[in-house]
Amino acid sequence: MSLTAQMIAQRGYHLTNLDDIAEQMDLSKASIYHYFDGKEALVMATLESCATYVEQRLTETAAREGTSAERLENLIRTQIELISVENVDIARLFLQSFDWPPSIGDAVHEWQRRHGRIFREVIHAGIESGEFVVRDERIACMAIQGAMNLVPVWYGNELARGDTKVLDDITASLMRIVIAAG
Q1: What pTM value is reported for the model?
Q2: Which domains does the chain have, with CATH numbers?
Q3: DNA-binding region spans which residues (predicted)?
């Protein structure tokens, strides 16, 4: 993830300015203005890049062959790896309220909807095939996503060290939301 995204995730939108970003990137502020109209444009491009990357990884994961349960399990693992191992700040950018300007806030909301849709489609397919026992796919999706997004807070250090047992346990626990205990 870019330095801009890290700074915003750590400081927030309003406490991050172009001077700080330029300094961290070892650039002049004029260099940033050469490519972007201002902070809002830079932040929007940064967020779009992060959202596109995550959406692409999840879409590829969801498209793999397998049962709905296997596909959802892989989605959960990929999401947790993305936000707990690969880059912890990604989730913070899209989940915390940064009092975004309206154009960024609207875009973030749309990216969140597209992200959720990937999970919902797999959960829906699992309900249709009889693999998942769920009364409300939307609630199941929100429960899984909500828990996944807190994993960096709950288990960050263990996952960052590559503790696959923890990842296996988390994934299995979240799968219980959609699979009836036998």
Answers
A1: 0.87
A2: 50-175 (1.10.357.10)
A3: 17-36
The per-residue DSSP string of the chain comes to: --HHHHHHHHH-STT--HHHHHHHTT--HHHHHHH-SSHHHHHHHHHHHHHHHHHHHHHHHHHSSS-HHHHHHHHHHHHHHIIIII-THHHHHHHS-----HHHHHHHHHHHHHHHHHHHHHHHHHHHHTS---S-HHHHHHHHHHHHHHHHHHHHHHHHTT-HHHHHHHHHHHHTTTS---
Q: How confident is the model at residue 22 (pLDDT cuts 50, 70, 90)?
A: confident
pLDDT at 93: 78
Query: Do residues 66 and 74 make contact, with C-beta atoms less than 8 angstroms apart?
Result: yes
**Cα within 13 Å of Cα(132), Cβ side:** 27
What is the Cα–Cα distance from 162 to 167, expressed in whole angstroms?
9
Report percent pLDDT > 90 for the chain.
46
